[in-house]
Write a structure and sequence with these properties.
Blueprint (H helix, E strand, L loop, with lengths): L3 H21 L3 H21 L3 H25 L4 H4 L7 H19 L21 H9 L4 H22 L11 H5 L3 H4 L13
């Protein structure tokens, strides 16, 4: 008996429940914890699909860095929960529409063979010596090198914009000017003073 489909459907059910709790939890901290569970479950599904590198990156980057930062920010901020719940029902139709669209897409992708789409590709097992990390790197730096560099430039612009928007200069802050420090001369900093020696009193 092949247990892999059972594990896949089990993890998929856990992922759906966790994603549903992210948007329905009243406490933002609880929602962040449910999102951590969703990331872990998605990483487990990627492991089943033999995408170990993507699974590890998802856990390290999103769970280990982004979600921990988000969780600490949520816990430190004084969030008004009543104000957050005011516009919930007004956005419900839009959210349901997006959710239904995603379900239709997943049904078409996963159940394509049941709808007569026999031409859809079915990836086979690449074998024990296959490295998806090496293959991912090869695709990124050959076929998708231009989109990869474009994404890097966009992220760099976003980082510079975030620093420029949050930078606030203070008048009472002291700072150094490296150009002046490098151009300084000894005569500008050191002054020799001739002083008479002290005489001992008898």
């Amino acid at each position: 008996m092949n247990i892999e489909p059972i594990v896949f459907y089990l993890f998929s059910a856990i992922l759906l429940i966790a994603a549903l709790r992210v948007i329905t939890a009243r406490n933002p901290v609880h929602a962040a914890l449910w999102l951590v569970l969703a990331f872990f479950t998605a990483a487990s599904i990627w492991m089943l699909l033999r995408a170990e590198f993507l699974a590890i990156v998802l856990v390290l980057v999103y769970v280990g860095a982004v979600m921990v930062l988000f969780l600490f920010v949520v816990m430190m901020l004084d969030i008004n929960l009543d104000r957050l719940r005011e516009g919930f029902w007004s956005y419900l139709p839009l959210g349901l529409g997006v959710g239904v669209l995603m379900v239709v897409e997943m049904v078409l992708v996963l159940g394509g063979k049941y709808f007569g789409a026999e031409h859809m590709p079915n990836p086979a097992d690449p074998g024990a010596g296959y490295s998806n990390t090496k293959e991912l790197g090869r695709l990124l730096y050959t076929d998708y090198v231009f989109p990869f560099e474009l994404a890097a430039v966009i992220l760099l612009v976003a980082i510079v914009a975030a620093i420029a928007l949050t930078l606030r200069g203070r008048k009472d802050s002291k700072h150094q000017i490296p150009a002046e420090q490098i151009a300084v001369k000894r005569a500008d900093r050191v002054r020799l003073i001739s002083m008479p020696s002290e005489k001992k009193e008898n």
